[in-house]
Specification:
With 391 residues, the protein is α/β, with parallel strands linked by helices. The protein is built from nine helices and 18 strands. The chain folds into two domains: 144 residues, NAD(P)-binding Rossmann-like Domain (Rossmann fold, 3-Layer(aba) Sandwich), CATH 3.40.50; 183 residues, Dihydrodipicolinate Reductase, domain 2 (2-Layer Sandwich).
Length: 391
């Protein structure tokens, strides 16, 4: 096989972006598209470069039954997006899934068990882990330049306007809070229900890559719902999780998508060790910072680390999110075609999802401390079997 026949599922903003990329990405051939919203399916059809060779489906199960599809590119935004990924693996399709991987621990396990039983490739399309500064920070940690890492932070406090919270289920069109009075057909979207802390892949994935670690315990707190900024949004403005890692570092992760913030990067990161620290920039005018105790440095130094990589191939430029979107599709292609093993495997993917899911459960249970399972096979859970607690 030298080409992956891929079906793109979920044709909202993100699915359309993936469709545009995959149609011109070497090693892929788009053979099917699917969305349960007819208007979005039609719009995507109009954007196909070779429409005659692409099947269109309104039902996901019909796409999964298509023998002309080797892999599913899953871009849905739904409570059951983890179950949909597992369903594709169970149907014999490789899966490249948008983030987050899943919204329940059962769905995390279902993906792991299905990937183990089938040997198919599952890649979580978390792209910030490919950013240039992430590799630079990981190298510094691996070389021991920071000493022992004791504390790290990641936050995604972004404000994209309020339009993702309400949409017309017929057309898929989104409406802002201000537009609601003129559009009684608008209904709350899944984002309206999804605890903001579930959206941690872009924090946990790069941080755990830098630390080469996984989370073992989590607890979390939330401001109240509805939002103080927009009472129409039944979501808290801020949720914050504290996590303990296997290597005994403490992580503070924060999310918030409803409250207005200045126009600057939505992500912010920090890593502190016993012999140094690294810090992402605070504003568009700022630069990242580094201090090493053993380098004759009286104060932090500014370092021009960026999202973009200096070694990015030409095809990566402009692919999205500081050129990082390219690496998701290149990694998936190379794994499915047997050219290179996944650097970010199914277990690491679940390491980004489970602590977030359990953070929300901790909030529901009054900031209870939750234990995070290790999804890797062990003597207690051989590969391909469900854990005893869920069997
Ligand atoms: N990696 C990133 O940087 C990034 C950026 C944006 C969004 N995302 C992720 O991408 C995904 C899609 O985001 P979006 O903004 O395009 O969402 P969206 O809500 O605009 O679109 C999702 C589409 O999936 C379709 N869908 C849902 N369930 C389906 C099913 N069972 N069968 C067929 N179609 C189904 C919906 O009809 C909808 O059109 C989300 O998981 C989101 O978290 C990731």
């Amino acid at each position: 096989m030298d080409e992956i026949r891929v079906g793109v599922v979920g044709l909202g903003g993100r699915g359309q972006h993936w469709l545009r990329m995959l149609q011109k990405f070497a090693g892929y051939r788009v053979t099917a598209i699917c969305d349960r919203q007819a208007a979005l399916l039609e719009a995507a059809k109009a954007a196909l470069t070779s429409p005659a060779s692409v099947k269109t489906y309104a039902r996901y199960e019909d796409l999964l039954a298509d023998s002309g599809v080797d892999a599913v590119a899953l871009c849905v935004r739904a409570r059951n997006q983890g179950a949909l990924a597992a369903q594709a693996l169970e149907a014999g399709k490789h899966v490249s899934s948008e983030v987050p991987a899943a919204h329940t621990l059962e769905d995390c396990w279902r993906i792991v068990v299905a990937a183990e039983r089938t040997g198919l490739v599952y890649l979580l399309g978390e792209q910030t882990r490919y950013w240039g500064f992430v590799d630079a920070w990981r190298d510094l940690v691996l070389q021991g330049r920071l000493g022992r890492v004791t504390f790290a932070e990641g936050q995604y406090i972004g404000f994209y306007g309020t339009w993702w919270y309400f949409s017309d289920p017929e057309t898929g069109r989104f409406y802002t809070v201000e537009e609601l009075k003129d559009h009684p057909e608008a209904r709350p979207t899944w984002l309206h229900e999804m605890p903001p802390i579930h959206y941690l892949p872009h924090e946990l994935s790069p941080m755990l890559k830098i630390l080469d670690d996984r989370v073992v315990e989590v607890t979390a707190m939330s401001t109240r719902a509805p939002s103080y900024s927009f009472p129409e949004i039944g979501q808290p403005d801020i949720q914050v999780a504290l996590m303990k890692t296997r290597k005994d570092a403490i992580l503070r992760l924060a999310t918030g998508y409803a409250q207005p913030v200045p126009k600057r990067g939505h992500h912010w990161y920090q890593v502190m060790g016993t012999r140094g620290c690294l810090e992402w920039k605070r504003s568009a005018r700022d630069l990242p910072k580094m201090w090493l105790a053993d380098a004759q440095m009286f104060d932090v130094a500014e370092v021009d680390w960026r999202f973009e990589r200096l070694d990015a191939p030409a095809e990566a430029r402009g692919s999205g999110h500081g050129d990082a979107d390219y690496y998701v599709h290149a990694s998936f292609r190379d794994a499915v075609l047997g050219r290179q093993r996944l650097e970010f495997d199914v277990y690491q993917a679940m390491d980004t999802a489970a602590p977030a899911i359990l953070a929300a459960e901790s909030i529901d249970q009054g900031t209870k401390l939750m234990k995070v399972p290790d999804f890797r096979p062990s003597a207690l859970r051989p590969a391909g079997q469900w854990p005893a607690s869920l069997a």
